[in-house]
Structures are given as structure tokens and as C-alpha cells.
Design a protein that fits this description.
heterodimer, A: about 270 residues, alpha+beta, Alpha-Beta Plaits, 2 domains, two-stranded antiparallel sheet, 9 strands, B: about 375 residues, mainly alpha, Formate dehydrogenase/DMSO reductase fold, 15 helices, about 0% strand, disordered N terminus
Chain lengths: ~270, ~375
Amino acid sequence: MSRGMLIDLTKCIGCRACQAACKQWNELSAETTHNGGSYQNPPRFSDKTWTLVTFNEVETQAKFAWVFAKRQCMHCEHPACASVCTVGALHKTAEGPVLYDAGKCIGCRYCQYACPFGVPSFEWQNTFSLIRKCTMCANRQAEGLEPACAKACPTGAIRFGEREELLAEARSRIAAQPEGYINHIYGEDEVGGTSIMYMSAVPFAQLGFPELGDQPVTQAAENIMQQTPTIAIGVAAVASGLYWVLKRRQQQATAKTAEAATDKGTKREGEKS
Amino acid sequence: MSVVTYGGASPARRSVAISPTLAALILLTLAGFVASVWRLIVGMGPTTALTDDYPWGIWIGFDFGLIAFAGAGFTMTTIVYVLGLERFREALRPAVLAGLCGYIAVLLLLVLDLGRWDRFYHFLIYWNVHSPLFEISWCVLLYTTVLLFENSPQLFERLGRHGLVRLIHQYVIPLVVIGLTLSSLHQSTLGTLYLNMPYRLQTLWYSPILSLLFFVSSIMAGLSIAMIAYMVAARLRGRSAKPAILSGLATGVAWVALVYVVLKVGDLWLAGELPALFAFDRISGLMWLELGVLAVLPMLLFFVPSLRNRRSVQWVGAVMILCGVLLNRFNATLFAQLAPAGATYSPHILEWLSTIGVLAAALLAWYLGVRYLAAFEDSHQEG
């Protein structure tokens, strides 16, 4: 029973109540504000901003549109961050959230490279720095509450629930209003599926969502990593075999010319081994 | 590498005078030490230019380049002990010592790069067998231990502990095989590490055979370091490097470089990426520099006997290969990474200082080792 969220971008009004609620619940401090040429603030995720409403100015059906996208950790079904973590500090829970064990993390930042959504953020300003990211409010979920962002949303753009039920809901919304949505539920299949899914009226690529395949990000590397014992045994066996064969051949050659062999200290020492 | 000038052709071995090169290495090491301690105390915010868009910088670039360079150890032990090519034995110890100094520098740079450097040992306790970095951490630690044993005869001989030398020698074959196994694993896993970045690494670099490419390139880098280490060590110990050994190593570099270039170009061809090479933009330019100028060109130099036998060409070719492999690791880490639009990274002065300091310390350690330990198997006979 894996839970997730369905975010309907057509209902988002860009009020950023979710962004504020996230900070409030998770006790995250404010960002220094800069004018980046749009209402979006801050420009990207950080250790202090786990959810972020992006403000996208797009052209759709020959008209200007201002589309807001509430972004946060996607809580992948096969999280790349968890696969690559040196010390296994990240893991996917059966309930849905991808959680992080701050007690294990060594701050190597490999997760930041593996995540295709740019989610894990680092505490650059601390002496001892760790990774921070959205938890889908797992601690609220444990108390039977919905995530703070979903709770705060005034328009119902964020729905929290069972992933399968949310998917069915999304499909029925698209079926009921095919002209209102593009026929793409972002997160249904992306990188093997994610717990957070999106519906939109404009293509996701125009909203800064990465275009991703259906394969889990780390599939290819995991296939190779699984071969580690085989490679180790193979290399050791081939090297040992090669040594034995070459040594034997050398000894046979030496035996033939045994009489001619003079007292060469270094060479004899080599043969003893 | 300019330590070669020290002492000239007839070094005054018992001289305590400090050459300008040695003085520079000591100063850089000290400066790097101060910069590193400062970074460890105040954290990465004030001491690096790293950001969430560019989480890895020159520490990782040099670190991964250095791991390939330190492949000098496993390539030379494999050549001499596994393949039994005794004629290369004289070049063995300087290379294996370079391997040890390299790996210790690697460990130091890795610790600098950790947000929780005080937890550097966590990979021993908390396991994640899917993680390339987990495997690399283990292999680097274990292989550094192997290198300590492989280098110990240089110290024991110097101390006249010939019983210990014989003891190590009895177990040298298992040591070498374990070293080769650990090296094969982590040198290739460094490539697997980038396989986990399909949406970040530019397509000219991203490839399903990244692991193989990293492994093969570590061999050509290792052999190049072995050449340079042998030339410099011979000079420092007032002997002349044997032309046959250098020529043989150069031939080896050329063949490995050929394998690398064929694999790389073949892979680009199969992936239909070859046209991207002819875009002649910044990205394709980097690939031309890395593959054309710094792999194919030295390969050709080393394939022509009349060129390969010249000491100047041996230097130039080996340095070019090293620059190429270093650039490859930097491309994978930085230049060919698709960071978000507008994101930039220009290393902080303290990143440079600490990196150069660690590299200088490694050079200094190698220099002292070659000068004062038994850098050649018969050097205790020099008196």
C-alpha cells in the first residue's frame, strides 16, 4: 500500500501556501531573496527549500499562459539516490516516501548526481554538512495526517492518497475533460514510476520537467554492480592461471638449459617464489 | 615532475642542501595543509565554489584522475609477477611506490570532499552493495593496504631486515593477484559510477561501456606514470634508465591506447554519436582534445620506433597520455556535465591550494622514498 500525491497543475494558482507550509512543518529557515526576473522564489531547491513552486511563462495554443508547478522530491519507485548512496542512507519505504537517515550520511553528494530531478540538496553553509530533502511528511503520515503541502493547498491541486487510486483518478479526469489536459500523467512511468504524479494542460517539457525514459535511472549500473563477485573471482582466477602457466613454461625452458645456467642470484630468487 | 632536475646526472646523495624544487614541494604541501585544515574546520561553504548544481569540483576531478595514475602499481606488478616479464623488473619499485603515494593522496582528497569527514569510516559499517562509491571506497582502502605490503621491502631492505624482505617475497604472488583484482574492480567501477548519471552526463561521454573504458584508460595512465617514475628515479639515484625498458613500456602504452581508442570510437559509432564529433562546438572540442590530441597522437608517437626510443618523446608521450586521462575524468565530472542553465563553477582558491598541497605531498613522499629507500632491488649494493 504505497501512498503518493497527484498534483493537478491546472488547479494550481501559484499561491505558494504549500511552500510555506513545508517550511513551517519541517522548521526550515527562510532563503535570502533575490529578484530573478520572475515571481519564482527561490530559483531552485535547497537544504532550506524542499518544495518549490516554479513559475513558468509558456505559449500554448497561440496564447500566453502562466503555469505553476509545485515541485518536490518525486519519491521514485526505484530511487536513484538510494541505489547510489555510499552508505545506504536513503531508502524507499513500503508506505511510499523515500527517506533519509542523517545518522549514516557522509555527505559525499553522489545522490545529487544520480537524481534526475535535482532534488537532494546539501547544507553548504555548515561545518558538518548533510543532505536534506522532502520526506513526503512521513512523520505526519505516521500520525494519520496528510503531508503539510497537501493540507495547505487551497484549490485542491494536491491530492494525497494511494498511488493506484490516484492514478485511476487522474485517468478519469483526463477522460472526462480530454480538452483540458494533455494525455500524459507525469510520474506514472518516468524512471520506473514515481509516488508523486502530475497532470497538466501543457507539455511537461515546457514546464522544466526533465524528459525521462521508463527505465529506473540506475538499472544499467546495478546490473554491472551485481557482477562484482563474478568479476573479482574471474580476474583472480585468470591472473593466477596465467601466472601458473607462464611460470611452468619458463621452468621447462630453464630446465632444458640447466647445464648452461650459471649462478645468477636474482634469477634464482625469482624462481623460488 | 621537475624534480628530475634535482642533483643532475651525478647527485650528491648525502647532501642535505634543499633544491628549489624540493623547497617548492615543501611550501606547497604546507600551504595545502593549512588550506585543508581550514576547510575541515569551517566547512565547504566559505572554502569552496561548489553548489547544488555543481556538487563535485576539482577535488573529485583530480581524485579520479589520480586513481588512474596510481594504476602504475597494479600494471607494473602484473607485468613483472603475473606475466613474468622480468626485463621490466627494474622499473617496478618506483612505479609501485608511485601507486602507494597516489592512493594515499586519493584518500586524503576524498576526505576533504566529504560533508561529514568525521564519518569517513561509515562505509565500513553501513553497506550498500549497489553503490559504485561503496565498492570503490572498499577497494581503495584494501588496495592501499596491499600497496603498503608491496612497498615494504623497499623499507626493510634499507633497514637491513632481509628476513622480512624474504617473508614478503614469499607472499608476493597472492599479494599481486589480490592487488590486480581490487584494481580491476574499482578502476572499472569508477566508470560505473558515471553510468548512474544518464541524464547528467553528455552523450559523447555517457556509454554502456564506461566501466571498460575507465579500466583500460587506467592501464595506459598507469604505464605512463611507470615510465616517468622510472626515468626520474633512475636520475635521482644516479643511474641511467635502460632504453629497452622505456621503449617496452612505451610500446605497451601505444597498444593499450589503441585498444582504448578503438573501443571509444567503436562505441560512438555503434551509438550513432559520431556525427556529434563533427559539431565542432565546445563539447566536441573537448572530446577531440581528450581523444584525438591526448590519446591518438601519443599513441602514434609511441608506435614509431625511431620516435619511441627518444627520451624527449618518451616524456612528451607519457605526459600527453596522463593529461588525456586527467581531462577525461574532468570532462566526466565537470565539463561534460549537463548542469542547469546559468549554473557555473569556478574553483575557490582554497580548493586549488588544498588540491595542489595534497598532490605536492604525494610527490614529496615519492621523492623522499626514491632517494632514501631501496628504490631499486640492487640499490643496497650501491653502498
